[in-house]
Structures are given as C-alpha cells and as structure tokens.
Amino acid sequence: MHYDHRIILLIAYFAYSCFAIIPDVHDKVHHPETQHNSENGHLSLPNLLHIDRIEDLELGWKTLGKPVFELGRLIFKDGGSSVWSLADLENTSNEWTLELVFRSSGTVNDDLKFNEENGFSLWLISSINSLPIDAQNMDNFGGPSQFDGFQFLFNNKGTKGLKIYGSDGSKVISNDLDSTIGNCAFNYLDSQVPFTLRISYSKERTWFKVQIDNNVCFKTDKIKIPEDIGDFSFGVSASSSSYSNEEYELLGLKVWNKLTEDAIDDHGIMSNGHVKVHYTTVVLKPEPTSNAYVKPGFIRESLMARTQRHKEELERQMKEAELLSSQPTENNLDTKIADILFSIERLGSAIDNMENSNDYNSKHILSQIEDLQNTYVQHKEKLQSLQQSLDDFKSTIAQQYSQMLAAFSKFNEKVIGEVREHQYSLDGLTSKVDLLMSNHKEIAYQYQKQSSSNAEKEPVSTIIINYIMKCFSFSLYVGIVFLIIIYREKRSKQHSKLL
C-alpha cells in the first residue's frame, strides 16, 4: 500500500487539533463533583430568579436606599443604595471565596464624564471599627466613607476598571488612584454581558487574590487578616448621578467559607485590560487502577495548558512522521494509519461526550424554562384573582352608591313634605289671627259707638273702667302680634335646619 505522507500528516493535524480544543467534557459529565459551581454557601444571596419581590430578601439581607428588583436582578440607580448581609462572613481570618456577578448599562460616550459620581462597590469591612451601616453613612458610593476592611470599587476615576482600597478605620479614604492597594484596568462600559468578580483569601496558602472573569488581576501574600478583627460584614452598594443613565445590575453574590476550584485555578493573567496567556505543562503518569480520573484538588489542567500540551505532542509526532516519510515502508504507513484511526476514535468519543454535556445543559435550561413557565402561570392566576376581586369591589361600590342615592332621595322627599306641612299649618294660623283681628276691630267699633251714645249718661267710674279696658285690649293685641312674630321666626329656623 502506498499513501501520500502529506495527506496522512494533514489528517493527523486535523484530528489532533480538533481533539486539543475540545474541553474535557467526559470528566465533567461523569464526575459532577468537578464542576466549579459547587453548592453555594448558606451566606450567598438567594437566586434572584427564584424570588418575586425584594421583600423576600428581608430574612437574611438589609436594603438601604431604593434598590429595585426587576426580572431576576437588583438594579441600583439615582443616588446611593445598597444591600447588606445580616450574617457576617464566616471563617474570615482563615479561608473564603466571594463571587460577584454584575453588569453596567453605561456607555463611554454618555456616562464616562460622570466618573466622580458613578460607582459600584463590594464591601468587606469589620463592624467594630467602621461607621454604622445605615442610611446616614452612604456618601461613599452608597457605603460608609470610614471603614476597617476592604472596598472593591468599579468606577472610571483615574483609570477605568476596578480599584481596591484597604483601611484600618482611622481616617476617611479618598477615592483616587494613589490611595489604592491595587487596581485592575479594564473597560466595563459599553458591555452587554455581565462581569464576574471573584475574591479569595487563604491563610494557609498565604494569598489574597482578585480575579475578573477567571483571570487574575491582583494577587499578594502581604495581606494577612488578623483573628481578633472578627468576621467581616459584606454587602454591595452603588450610586450614580441623577443626570446619568448608567444603572448597575447585581445578578448574583455567592459566598463560600473555603477556596473554590476556580479560585485556585488561574486561567489567565490580566494586565492593562488584556489577558496574558499563562500555562503550565504537566506530565501525567498513568495510575495502575482502571479509573484514570484525577481529582481537580490534586491536579487540574486549565484549557490553555491542555491545548499547549496537545500542540507540543502534535509537533513531536509531525517531526517523527517527516523522518519516517524519508524512508517510507508499508509497515510504517500502516502504523501511522492505525494511529490516525485511534485519534479519530478519541475525537469521536470526545464529541459524543460533548453532546452528552450539551444534552445535560439543554435539560438544565429546559428545566429553568419550565420553572419560569410555572411562575408565569402562577402570576397569571394571581392576576386573574386580583382582577376578579377588583370587579367585585367595583360592583359593590356601584351597588352602595345606588342605595345611597335612593336613601338621599327618600330623605329629601320626607323633608319637603314636612316643610309643606309646616307651611300649611302656619297659613291656617295666620288666617285665624286675621279673623281674630277683624272681630276685635268690629267689637271695638261697636263698643266705641255704644260708649259715645252713653257717654253723657255714664258716671266717671264707668269712664275710667272703659279707659282701662281699652288699654288692656291694646296690650292684648300687641302681645298677640308679638307671639305671632316669634312663632314665625321659630318655624323659619326649623325650616332652614331641615334643608
């Protein structure tokens, strides 16, 4: 059999290149304990996709200002606001990991000029030597201006990116670049994807490390947290100018009282906003057992290291192939073809494992979609129930209003009837008084006539008696008129009160 060694080398290069860039999905599918997102610590912020309102956080978290909960995220905007854990960071002086996921809606063209007012902070502070965490101490981008601990500030003053401040609580730290203990320069504006900030500390390994999107941007062995400082309080705060459209979205905050695998593994090194390739070649010796799985806590290659190792192996085999091609024999070609077929089989196995992993991810995504659909159905049922209650309330209000109008109508008719009755009684009394006055005038006239005819015959005593009778009659007349006036006034007052 005669084959063109160039075709063989091309096939080998393709097989090894494809195999090198495929992640080790097999181990992750069959050994789920290697997943870097292990079970979240109990101090972590609850999954914001599983809560309905910001009040659901009150059992373990305290909010200051006006953070807004919307679609699985906490939004910080328009002035200072913050959210703080009610529980302290356990194991503070020994070992821990914090992982923060956030996004900024700002743009360079519109919001870069607000670098003095806009900022987003993660806090790790001792409550013993810091200002109280309350609404009166929010002048430092939503947090205290005087603190004992660390502030991890994202803003664009001095340089774009993350600035790390450390303080012992004895004075106010100015938010400028000269006061930092370290910084990570990168641009988080004009980004439609979230960023992940990971902070880890280990007393045993003597490190304090900060990672942005799995890339190391700050690491030192000079920071040691004393045991007598107590456990740190931790929280997130932000503030922005009222003239700026920039908003900060908190998507998650995970806390562990140990080092996670991603905290241990340095995928890359960030410098001036760029990632420098950092890899380590590790030669693995096969173990005598059939299980070739190695726990990540013991040896764990990063993807870049694995790619580099396969590249070096490919170059070595290509050189061997060139040496063998100078003296081609049928046995050498058969051996090379067998190697290529073996590599293709490994490639197929890796692709199958990757498909299994995709199935797993698809199932996980479908499960989340089903949860969202169930939540939507529940909210829809609640909304329908609320709408029914609102309709019933409107019907009750309309019925009560109709009854109230009917009652007012009856009352008005009753009042008008009573007024008419009183008016009729008053008219009758007036007519009787007029009749009495007419009779009195007639009697007075007859009396006067009789008196004039008998004036000459009557004695002086009779004249005096007549005079007294006239005075008495006049007084009686005046009293009757006065009583009539008083009666009319009382009736008019009663009438006005009824109306």
From TrEMBL:
It is a single-pass type I membrane protein. SUPFAM superfamilies: Bacterial hemolysins, Concanavalin A-like lectins/glucanases. Residues 300-327, 369-396 form a coiled coil. The chain crosses the membrane at residues 467-487. It is found in: Membrane. Residues 35-258 form the L-type lectin-like domain. InterPro entries: ConA-like_dom_sf, Intracellular_Lectin-GPT, Lectin_leg. One of its GO terms (cellular component) is Golgi membrane. Its main location: membrane. GO terms for molecular function: D-mannose binding. GO terms for biological process: endoplasmic reticulum to Golgi vesicle-mediated transport. Keywords: Coiled coil, Lectin, Membrane, Signal, Transmembrane, Transmembrane helix. Pfam families: Lectin_leg-like. This is Concanavalin A-like lectin/glucanase.
